[in-house]
C-alpha cells in the first residue's frame, strides 16, 4: 500500500527500518573514522573492497552542502515508486544502483565539509615545517634516501613537493613573458613569484638551441615568434635568505629550477636522440643525448650558455657565503629534469669544492648511457627521480640497459655505449592511486607536473592506498586536468556552489623577487 502525504508508519515497521539501518554501517575508513564495522562482513577485505569503501567515503564528503530536511513522501510515477518531494535531480539519483560500490550518503559533519572546501580552495596546505637541522644531509640524499621512500617520510614528502613548486614558478615565469627581445644586448630583468618567500631569485637562466628555423617562419607568423626563437628563459637560481629557515633546514640552500619543453626548437632538440661524447671528457665511452647537450652548452646571441651561467652564479654565491654550510638543489620537470643532470655534472666538474649537490627530477627522460651514470656516481651527485608509472616520457629515448645482449664482456661494453640508462634513486608513483583521477587518464595528465605533486602528496607506500589526510589543494588539478578528473567529483565540486572562475588558478600570491 502506498503511503500518502501526512501518513505515519506503524511502530513495528519503524523497528524493522531501524534494525536494517543498524546492519548497514560502513567499514571503518580514514575518511569516516567514526563508522563501525558491519555485523556480517567478509573474513578479509580485498583491495577492491577497500577502493570501493574509499570512494564511498569520498562520495560522502562531496555531497550537497545544505541538504533540505526530508519532506513527507508522496505518490510517485505510474510504476508505483515513492518519490521524495522537493528534491533535486542529483539527490533523486540512487547512486547505489548506478555504481554498486556507492552507498547512499547519510549526514555530512561540519568537519568533513570544511575539509572538502579546503581541498577545493586555492590555498595550499602543508605538513608542519619540522626541524631538519641534524638530518639535512640525509634528506638531501647522502644515503640515497634509504629508508625514507617506502613508506614515504613526511619531511621528505614536503621537501619534494616544495621543490616541485619551484619548477612551477619557472613555468609561470616563462609563460608570463615568453618572448625575448632581439634588440637588447642583454635581456631585461625578470620577476619570478616564488612559492617560498624565504628564497630570493639571484639569476635568470637561458637555454639556446644550436639549430634554427628559416627567417620566413617568423615573417609568416610574427605573433608566435617566441615559439621559434633560439634562446629562451628556462629557469632561475634562488638562494635561501631567511635566517629562521636556514636554521630549520640546517644550511643555506641554493636552488636551481628548470622548466620543461615549451618552444618549437626545444621540441626539435628533444628529438635529436643520438648519443654523443661529453665535451672535455677524456673517456669516449661516457655519452649523453645530443639535443639535451645542445641546449645545455650552446651560447645565444646575447646570453651565455646554460652551463656558463650556472657555474658563474654558483661560484659567486659560494664566495658570498663563504664559511657557511651550503647545499645545491637542482630541480626540473621533463626537459628540465634532463638538463638538471647536465647542470649537476657541470657544477661538479667546474667547481671541485662545490657543496653537496642533489637533483630532484619529475617525469624526466633518460639522458645518457651507463658511462654517464658512472660519471655522476663518481662525483657523488645524488639524484631522486620521481616517476609516474603511466608517464611515457620517463621511458624514452631508446631502450633501457636491461636489453643488453648476452655475450662477451666486449660485446656488452659496446651495447652499453649506445644504450640509454636511468640514473639515481627512484620514487615511483601511479595515477591509479589517486581516488580523484581517472585510471585511464591521458598522456598529458600522466606527465603533468601538478598531477605529479598531487600523487606525491597522497603517496603513503607501494602497498598502501592514497592517504586520507592529503593536504594539497585540488583547485589547480581541476583547472588543468578537468577532463581527467572523475566526473563524480567535478560534478559534486560544482554542486558546492563553487564558481568555475575559481579554477582559473593563478600562482601563489607571493612577493616577486627581482632577477639579476
Architecture overview:
InterPro entries: AB_hydrolase_fold (IPR029058), Fungal_lipase-type (IPR002921). Belongs to the AB hydrolase superfamily. Lipase family. Keywords: Chloroplast, Hydrolase, Lipid degradation, Lipid metabolism, Plastid, Transit peptide. By secondary structure, the chain is an alpha/beta fold. It folds into two domains: 109 residues, no CATH class; 382 residues, Alpha/Beta hydrolase fold, catalytic domain (Rossmann fold). It contains 20 helices and 13 strands. The strands form four sheets. A seven-stranded mixed sheet has the order 2-3-4-7-8-10-12, with helices on both faces. It has a two-stranded antiparallel ribbon with strand order 1-13. It is globular and about 60 Å long. The N terminus and C terminus are likely disordered.
Measured distance between first and last alpha carbons:
81 Å
Strand order of the largest sheet: 2-3-4-7-8-10-12
CATH superfamily of the largest domain: Alpha/Beta hydrolase fold, catalytic domain
Percent helix range: 25-40%
Average pLDDT, all residues? 77
The second-level CATH architecture of the largest domain is 3-Layer(aba) Sandwich
| Assigned CATH class of the largest domain | Alpha Beta
The amount of beta strand, in percent, is 5-15%
DSSP helix count?
20
The dominant shape is: globular
CATH topology of the largest domain: Rossmann fold
Low-pLDDT runs of 5+ residues are 1-14, 16-45, 63-108, 497-516
Tell me the radius of gyration: 27 Å
How many β-strand stretches?
Answer: 13
Instruction: Specify the structural class.
Output: alpha/beta
Number of domains: 2
The description of the largest β-sheet is:
7 strands, mixed
Amino acid at each position: 500500500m502506498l503511503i500518502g502525504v501526512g501518513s505515519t508508519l506503524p511502530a513495528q515497521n519503524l523497528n524493522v527500518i531501524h534494525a536494517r539501518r543498524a546492519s548497514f554501517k560502513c567499514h571503518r575508513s580514514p575518511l569516516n573514522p567514526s563508522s563501525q564495522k558491519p555485523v556480517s562482513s567478509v573474513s578479509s577485505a580485498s583491495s577492491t573492497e577497500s577502493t570501493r569503501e574509499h570512494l564511498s567515503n569520498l562520495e560522502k564528503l562531496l555531497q550537497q552542502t545544505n541538504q533540505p530536511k526530508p519532506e513527507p513522501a508522496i505518490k510517485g510515477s505510474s510504476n508505483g515508486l515513492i518519490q521524495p518531494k522537493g528534491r533535486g535531480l542529483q539527490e533523486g539519483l540512487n547512486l547505489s544502483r548506478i555504481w554498486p560500490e556507492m552507498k547512499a550518503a547519510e549526514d555530512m559533519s561540519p568537519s568533513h565539509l570544511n575539509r572538502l572546501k579546503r581541498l577545493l580552495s586555492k590555498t595550499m596546505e602543508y605538513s608542519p615545517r619540522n626541524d631538519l637541522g641534524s638530518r639535512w644531509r640525509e634528506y638531501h640524499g647522502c644515503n640515497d634516501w634509504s629508508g625514507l621512500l617506502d613508506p614515504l617520510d613526511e619531511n621528505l614528502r614536503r621537501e619534494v613537493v616544495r621543490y616541485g613548486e619551484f619548477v612551477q614558478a619557472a613555468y609561470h615565469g616563462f609563460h608570463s613573458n615568453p618572448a625575448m627581445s632581439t634588440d637588447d644586448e642583454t635581456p631585461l630583468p625578470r620577476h619570478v613569484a616564488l612559492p617560498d618567500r624565504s628564497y630570493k631569485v639571484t639569476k635568470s637562466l637561458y637555454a639556446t638551441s644550436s639549430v634554427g628555423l628559416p627567417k620566413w617562419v617568423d615573417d609568416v607568423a610574427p605573433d608566435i615568434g617566441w615559439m621559434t626563437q633560439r634562446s629562451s628563459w628556462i629557469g632561475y637560481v634562488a638562494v635561501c635568505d631567511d635566517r629562521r629557515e636556514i636554521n630549520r633546514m640546517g644550511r643555506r640552500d641554493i636552488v636551481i629550477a628548470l622548466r620543461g619543453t615549451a618552444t618549437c626548437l626545444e621540441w626539435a632538440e628533444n628529438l635529436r636522440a643520438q648519443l654523443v661524447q661529453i665535451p672535455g671528457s677524456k673517456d669516449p665511452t661516457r655519452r649523453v643525448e645530443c639535443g639535451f647537450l645542445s641546449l645545455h652548452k650552446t651560447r645565444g646571441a646575447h646570453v651565455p650558455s646554460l652551463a656558463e651561467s650556472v657555474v658563474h652564479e654558483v661560484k659567486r654565491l659560494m664566495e658570498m657565503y663563504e664559511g657557511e654550510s651550503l647545499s645545491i638543489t637542482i630541480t626540473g620537470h621533463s626537459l628540465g629534469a634532463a638538463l638538471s643532470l647536465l647542470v649537476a655534472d657541470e657544477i661538479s666538474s667546474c667547481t671541485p669544492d662545490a657543496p653537496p649537490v642533489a637533483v630532484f627530477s619529475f617525469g624526466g627522460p633518460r639522458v645518457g648511457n651507463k658511462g654517464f651514470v658512472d660519471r655522476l656516481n663518481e662525483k657523488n651527485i645524488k639524484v631522486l627521480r620521481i616517476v609516474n608509472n603511466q608517464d611515457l616520457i620517463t621511458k624514452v629515448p631508446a631502450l633501457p640497459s636491461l636489453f643488453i645482449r648476452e655475450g662477451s664482456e666486449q660485446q656488452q661494453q659496446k651495447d652499453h655505449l649506445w644504450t640509454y640508462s636511468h640514473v639515481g634513486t627512484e620514487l615511483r608513483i601511479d595515477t591509479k592511486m589517486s581516488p580523484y583521477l581517472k585510471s585511464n587518464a591521458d598522456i598529458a595528465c600522466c606527465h603533468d607536473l601538478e598531477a605529479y605533486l598531487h600523487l606525491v602528496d597522497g603517496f603513503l607506500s607501494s602497498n598502501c592506498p592514497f592517504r586520507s589526510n592529503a593536504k594539497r589543494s585540488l583547485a589547480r588539478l581541476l583547472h588543468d586536468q578537468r577532463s581527467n578528473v572523475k566526473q563524480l567529483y567535478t560534478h559534486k565540486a560544482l554542486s558546492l556552489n563553487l564558481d568555475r572562475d575559481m579554477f582559473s588558478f593563478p600562482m601563489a600570491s607571493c612577493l616577486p623577487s627581482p632577477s639579476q
